Amino acid sequence: MQTITLRVEDSVSEKFLWLLEHFDEKEISIIDKIGKMYQLLFSPQAKKDLEGLA
Asked: Which residues make beta-bridge pairs with 34?
């Protein structure tokens, strides 16, 4: 799994968390949150799924 740190703007924070909740805990885990920064653990499949949304 890969660890990725993201900064999420307040205007999309709720939508971003909604999206993450639709993944299984084995695919994506929030491992740390500091202010607007989220540190996430992604499985390779979850990373591919998210890249497909772009």
From this structure: 37
Whole-angstrom distance, CA of residue 50 vs CA of residue 53: 5
Place of tokens 């084995």: 26
pLDDT of 26: 83
Give the end-to-end CA distance of the chain in Å, rounded to a whole number. 21
- pTM given for the model: 0.60
3-state helix/strand/coil string of the chain: CEEEEEECCHHHHHHHHHHHHCCCCCCEEEEEEECCEEEEEECHHHHHHHHHHC
Q: Are 29 and 40 in contact (CB under 8 A)?
A: yes
